[in-house]
Design a protein that fits this description.
The chain is mainly alpha-helical. It has one domain. Helix content is about 85%, strand content about 0%. It is built from 19 helices and no strands. The radius of gyration is 23 Å and the shape is globular. About 50% of the residues are buried.
């Protein structure tokens, strides 16, 4: 009798699970999201494979120390770019989704013009700042003059970074297939340049030039594809649209732009400043090992990055339509799916990491295993929690996200300093795990509070306090 009851109970539970999975997979929104994600993921995997090939060749061709110098140049330039770049695509998706939902082409064109001017201004400013910082590093003796000239030359990446607006255009119109093509083309160009540098046994500047050409070409291609999509959709005469009074029409626009810029800057600081700190504490060779560990670990990001790009426009549309149930369900669905995949990859790295390093980049880089395991575990937590960031932005709370990033970044650098002192290079991976455990806990708690306590009231009061609205 007990066996019969137990069997019936198990059959009932399994039936409930099957029904739940059937509803989950049968959800139209979920299917569309998976389609967009698969297109982005295909491009991201191809780009990742091409980029990883370039990294492996550069690491083998240059050795840990020179490869560490190349990484430091890229880190300085990337940090400056992210500090100055206004991340216009996030604001354009937030407010552009509203304009498209209301079928208001005039407002949409005004937003596109606003974003284009923002991209151009930040690109020029970022280039000037990069050149100035490079010169100061050389004059003050922080880096060699060769480092300075290479960094100043690599500033072309910043000048061509006009991709915020076209990125928003393609995502708002679900043209994730086009974005995937752009990623592949940029990756092919970069890898081709690195292969040439490797065959010719080129010096450091040859490898850096290969990265420069790939990045600039990718930026320009995305710019052209975005504007082509606008013409196809019938949005002509963008520059004849007036942006006068646009911040009155969208009272929270500047607040959103500034906050997402600061938020992105803080996030990038946590991801790139660590390289600069490790270089100062342990030297360029340690940077080379650390960067290889990061490159392997960010394979996991290839799971979450396409999902992030696909989920944010959908969350913005759901929030605009006030469909809270679908909003929350989408967060849980994508987080669970990405987290499960990330955990499997981490287990594989734990078991086969040493052999993988030895086979790919050589015995010189086997010392990266100890930091790889910790860093990849941290990225697994990041991947599982990836929906929290776009959800907060879609709800119109960029300032809360910024505050969380500031607090957790301060915690991260404190942990990084202490753990580097105690454990040396492996401590860097441990510190990153501390960072993402703290970030995930705080973000999840905040979003639960917002959704439970009447988010419309919270959103409106936040915008009013930021814009001075009485």
């Amino acid at each position: 009798m007990n066996d019969f009851v137990g069997k019936a109970h198990l059959e009932r539970i399994s039936g409930q699970i099957r029904d739940y999975l059937r509803r989950w997979v049968g959800d139209d929104l979920f299917r569309r999201l998976l389609k967009n994600t698969s297109q982005l993921l295909g491009g991201s995997i191809a780009k990742s494979a091409l980029g990883f090939g370039a990294v492996l060749l550069a690491a083998r061709g240059l050795g840990p120390e020179k490869y560490g110098i190349l990484v430091l140049i890229q880190a300085y330039v990337t940090i400056i770019d992210k500090l100055v770049n206004f991340q216009s695509w996030q604001a354009l998706i937030k407010y552009g989704a509203d304009a498209l939902e209301k079928d208001d082409p005039t407002s949409f064109k005004r937003l596109i013009k606003f974003g284009t001017f923002l991209d151009a201004g930040s690109a020029v400013l970022g280039t000037l700042v990069t050149i100035a910082v490079g010169w100061i590093l050389g004059v003050w003796g922080v880096q060699s003059m060769q480092f300075t000239w290479l960094m100043m030359g690599y500033s072309g990446v910043v000048l061509s970074n006009l991709i915020g607006t076209p990125k928003a255009i393609l995502r708002l119109f679900d043209r994730f297939d086009v974005a995937a093509i752009q990623q592949i083309v940029a990756g092919v160009l970069r890898l081709g340049g690195v292969v040439g540098a490797f065959i010719m046994d080129a010096p450091l500047w040859g490898y850096l030039l290969a990265w420069l050409v790939g990045e600039v070409a990718g930026h320009l291609l995305l710019l052209g594809l975005g504007w082509r999509e606008l013409r196809v959709r019938g949005y002509l005469g963008i520059f004849s649209a007036s942006v006068q009074g646009i911040t009155k029409t969208y009272s929270g626009l500047w607040n959103f732009v500034w906050t997402t810029n600061l938020n992105g800057s803080v996030r990038m600081t946590s991801r790139r400043m660590d390289t600069v700190i490790i270089g100062g504490v342990l030297g360029p060779a340690a940077v080379g090992l650390y960067e290889i560990a990061k490159k392997f670990a960010t394979i996991l990001n290839r799971l979450s990055n396409p999902l992030y790009q696909a989920i944010y426009p959908e969350l913005a549309k759901l929030w605009s339509a006030q469909d809270r149930e679908a909003f929350v369900r989408l967060i849980f669905q994508l987080g669970a799916m990405a987290g499960a995949g990330a955990l499997l990859v981490w287990i594989g790295a734990l078991v086969f990491g040493t052999s993988l390093l030895n086979w790919t980049v050589g015995a010189e880089y086997v010392g990266a295993y100890s930091v790889l395991v910790w860093y990849m575990l941290a990225v697994a937590v990041e991947v599982a929690a990836f929906p929290l960031q776009p959800a907060m932005l879609a709800m119109g709370h960029p300032r809360k996200t910024f505050v969380v990033h500031v607090v957790t970044t301060v915690l991260y650098f404190g942990a990084l300093g202490g753990l580097l002192y105690i454990y040396e290079l492996p401590g860097a991976g441990m510190a990153y795990l501390v960072y993402y455990l703290a970030w995930t806990s705080i973000m999840a708690g905040l979003e639960y509070m917002i959704l439970s306590s009447g988010s419309e009231k919270v959103e409106n009061s936040e915008v009013e306090s930021a814009t001075g609205t009485p």
